[in-house]
Design brief:
alpha/beta; 10-stranded mixed β-sheet; 10 strands
């Protein structure tokens, strides 16, 4: 690991000194950084908002994830920038700036765990901690060329973590090293693991159809390269009615829960909200109980469908993101279109509460692209193992396959 230049990965209210890990732990010698939504005792948690930061006292105790990492030997060297109130997929923060994506210069790192992913991609840490509600680990992992896991909902503790939408919130991690990536799993994963040998691979044709041609081609090329280490594949349409019903249900539930979590503060304190976040908060404030209840019925039906589709032993393959990282100066209307496209794919694991791993499979037009594998409830460890097995096939690109 080499030191990275200062590229805006860390918040201005960063740690004054590293938090040293247990020298005998399984992660001893590894450096990590954490998204600024995880409490660290004696410091303030900002959640991407200077006004939230100023209004809240320092944390009395570490978040469970932080405590586990230190006990396991990891040294925490910084708190990273995230999107304001976690309410974006771009990685841009109007108050703190945009962390530099050194693997795709001039392009977005992806949000909301933008600083964590950008720091890992730059070599500023061995792995980094983020959170994923609507794609905030998976998306920046894909854009920054990293391994990334959104775990089964509830398998990583969120005690001491700033919430967004609890029905979907998950804590996850990213790393450039598949070996390091796998080592973090036993430290953070809780609850029942469901071990099963992968016996079937579903290639989600309708998800691939959402992707730009180069991204889709890179994903298919990777699956061909890796076929010897994957179960037999079948092609299926997984959302017979299209993805927009699931995406809209996710958006509505997320909006309702964001407002339940933060609406009181926003109404009372009138914090400065950046472009895009302001408009999404206005939508969140408008979501009524009946609107949210109807969306929950759609999401529950989607969850049942996806759980039936993915019993233990079955894995789903799809593009993590439908495109390469957008340019930093992409216009606002184009960014909204990008957000809709992203959420069509990222809502799948979200509404189902399923684990999803991003694999950095190569580049398109010089930019990293990712392919995802979604597993069954409790199948996180199998996905981590597969990431290590398949690492030998990562790094190819559509242009040369």
């Amino acid at each position: 690991m080499t030191a990275a230049p200062a590229n805006g990965f860390f918040v201005p209210h960063d740690l004054e000194a590293p938090l040293r890990g247990n020298a005998a732990g399984p992660l001893a010698g590894l450096i990590t950084v954490v998204k600024d939504i995880f409490d660290i005792a004696g410091t303030r948690t900002g959640g991407g908002s200077p006004d939230w930061l100023a209004a809240h006292p320092p944390a009395a105790t570490h978040a469970t994830v932080v405590a586990k990492l230190i006990d396991a030997g990891a040294t925490i060297t910084g708190k990273t920038i995230c999107d304001e109130f976690l309410f974006s997929v771009t990685g841009k923060n109007a108050h703190y700036g945009t962390p530099a994506n050194l693997r795709a210069p001039g392009r977005l790192p992806g949000g909301s765990s933008s600083g964590s992913a950008a720091a890992a991609a730059a070599g500023a840490c061995d792995f980094s901690i983020g959170s994923d509600t609507g794609g905030s680990v998976r998306l920046p992992a894909a854009f920054c060329g990293l391994y990334g896991l959104r775990p089964t909902h509830g398998r990583v503790s969120l005690t001491g973590v700033m919430p967004m939408a609890p029905s979907f919130d998950a804590a996850g991690w990213v790393s450039a090293s598949p070996g390091v990536f796998r080592r973090v799993g036993p430290v953070l994963l809780e609850g029942p693991a469901v071990a099963a040998a992968p016996t079937s691979l579903i290639i989600a044709d309708d998800a691939f159809e959402q992707a730009d041609p180069g991204v889709a081609a890179a994903g298919h090329a990777f699956l061909r390269r890796a076929a010897a280490n994957l179960p037999p594949a079948i092609h299926r349409t997984i959302a017979t009615g299209g993805f927009d019903d699931w995406r809209e249900a996710f958006r509505v539930i997320q909006g309702r829960e964001v407002w339940e979590a933060h609406g009181g503060f926003i109404s009372r304190a009138a914090p400065r909200l950046g472009p895009g976040v302001k408009e999404r908060m206005e939508f969140a404030a408008s979501v009524g109980v009946e609107h949210a209840a109807a969306a929950r019925e759609v999401a529950a039906a989607g969850r049942r469908h996806l759980h039936a589709l993915l019993p233990p032993g079955t894995i789903l393959a799809l593009p993590t993101v439908p495109c390469i990282a957008p340019l930093i100066d992409m216009p606002a209307d184009a960014l909204e279109s990008f957000r809709i496209r992203v959420m069509r794919l990222s809502c799948i694991a979200g509404i189902a509460g399923l684990p999803q791993v991003n694999l950095p499979i190569g580049t398109v037009d010089g930019c990293p692209v990712g392919l995802s594998l979604i597993g069954w409830v409790g199948g996180d460890e199998i996905l981590l193992d597969l990431a290590g097995t398949l690492a030998r096939y990562c790094g190819g690109c559509a242009e040369t396959d």
